[in-house]
Recover the amino acids of this structure.
């Protein structure tokens, strides 16, 4: 889209969004739908990227979202919004083809195109803007946001400052590189890449004699399948290694999915910090497993390659950790491996490594340096985030900083889930406007989490159920 003129900085915004990924794009779309009564809600959003793109390195042909199409930017908060996925299809005259396709889970590339369609039409989205600092101006009772406007080459073009009553941080996640492999990733001559950059290097990878994929999640499975299909039978030369004890399917039962409801989010947020920290890593299969259809397709492809005798030249081994890695003189890569159950060690020589090792939340500290003395933290030095997605700040700061996809330690496994995007955005906007702009359901799950549940989850047919007190 064509960037809008630089705003009048003497007129503060109600909300400045930092980062334009799916979550802040959801917030922008729902904010755009708030009627100007009595005054319009003034918002603006910044991102240092030149345009909206969602995981471009992983838009593998045929790869689908792991959530239904109803988990778009707005539908679960406002299905009448003009920014729904169905309205995107209508706008492109594709409603009938979608209807007959009978697909509940859309392709990732289509989700990316839908989000770009929204971003190209919403006003007040400013790309090529890098946020440098956030401060609180006590005299004006406003946040000051400093930014650098970038040119098409990503170089500094101009400096600017804007003021706002509130901020929404949606800076997203960044690829996680295991410590033993960091030196190799930083070496440009070696094909050691994170899965986030897979499509950008796919042709180079296909030319490698032997390829190793590390990681047990959906991305690793999709990349393994894509490479398997692209290589001739009997000459696949693929290794797939994971730390998990199995190539495990994602928990996708209907009651299991209720861990991604607002009911569970409320329950999790009310748990003690130590309980939350113990619980999150144990729930990995809720969000880090592999889609069952993908697992079945991989097995079908491997089986097909045995029909004329022999086995495909592939090795799939769970329970493996990478101890160290090094570059050999012939520019190959040697991985030093350990099997966690057998407690045995070996080495693997390969020509290329793909790290499907997931993502970590980007740290907020570099943006909040000036606010650090006012920021409340937990015992692990992480920001306190309340049930309305606000950073806990000193009372002297009267504005709010809302966070999106940076609160797993306080809100649980649903934090990065697209299905909760619209609900979280609506919660933020309801709090910001002090109104029920977007009415939200009191109850969203059949499961009652805990013996002292949120009042909305108490079963109406059993009025005799009384809350229990927590014991030490």
């Amino acid at each position: 889209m064509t960037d809008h003129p630089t705003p009048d900085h003497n007129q503060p915004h109600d909300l400045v969004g930092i980062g334009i990924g799916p979550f802040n794009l959801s917030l922008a779309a729902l904010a755009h739908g708030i009627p100007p009564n009595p005054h319009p809600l003034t918002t603006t959003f910044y991102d240092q990227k030149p345009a909206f793109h969602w995981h471009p390195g992983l838009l593998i042909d045929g790869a689908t979202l792991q959530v239904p199409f109803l988990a778009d930017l707005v539908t679960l908060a406002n299905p009448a919004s003009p920014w729904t996925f169905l309205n995107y299809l209508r706008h492109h005259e594709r409603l009938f083809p979608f209807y007959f396709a009978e697909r509940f889970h859309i392709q990732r590339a289509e989700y990316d195109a839908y989000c770009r369609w929204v971003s190209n039409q919403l006003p007040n989205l400013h790309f090529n803007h890098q946020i440098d600092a956030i401060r609180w101006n006590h005299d004006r009772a406003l946040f000051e946001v400093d930014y650098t406007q970038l040119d098409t080459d990503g170089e500094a073009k101009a400096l600017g400052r804007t003021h706002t009553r509130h901020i929404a941080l949606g800076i997203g996640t960044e690829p996680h590189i295991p410590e033993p492999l960091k030196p190799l990733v930083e070496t440009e001559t070696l094909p050691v890449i994170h899965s986030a950059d897979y499509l950008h290097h796919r042709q180079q990878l296909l030319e490698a004699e032997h390829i190793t994929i590390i990681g047990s999640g959906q991305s690793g499975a999709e990349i393994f399948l894509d490479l398997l299909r692209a290589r001739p039978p009997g000459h696949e030369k693929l290794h797939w290694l994971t730390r998990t004890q199995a190539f495990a399917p994602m928990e996708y039962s209907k009651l299991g999915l209720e861990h991604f409801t607002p009911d569970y989010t409320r329950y999790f947020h009310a748990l003690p910090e130590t309980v939350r920290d113990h619980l999150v890593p144990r729930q990995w299969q809720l969000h880090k497993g592999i889609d069952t259809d993908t697992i079945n397709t991989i097995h079908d492809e491997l089986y097909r390659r045995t029909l004329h005798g022999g086995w495909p030249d592939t090795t799939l081994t769970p329970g493996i950790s990478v101890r160290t890695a090094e570059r050999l003189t012939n520019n190959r890569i040697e991985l030093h491996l350990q099997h966690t159950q057998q407690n045995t060690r070996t080495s693997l020589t390969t020509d290329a490594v793909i790290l499907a090792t997931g993502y970590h939340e980007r740290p907020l500290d570099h943006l909040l340096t000036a606010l650090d003395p006012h920021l409340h933290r937990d015992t692990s030095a992480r920001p306190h985030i309340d049930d309305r997605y606000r950073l806990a700040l000193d009372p002297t700061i009267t504005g709010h900083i809302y966070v999106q996809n940076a609160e797993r330690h306080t809100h649980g496994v649903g934090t990065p889930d697209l299905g909760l995007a619209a609900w979280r955005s609506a919660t933020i906007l309801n709090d910001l406007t002090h109104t029920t702009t977007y009415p939200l359901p009191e109850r969203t799950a059949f499961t009652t989490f805990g013996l002292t549940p949120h009042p909305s989850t108490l079963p109406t047919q059993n009025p005799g159920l009384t809350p229990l007190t927590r014991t030490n």
Remarks:
- The first strand starts at residue 13 and ends at 18.
- The radius of gyration is 24 Å.
- Residues 1-8, 460-472 have pLDDT under 50 and may be disordered.
- The first helix runs from residue 22 to 32.
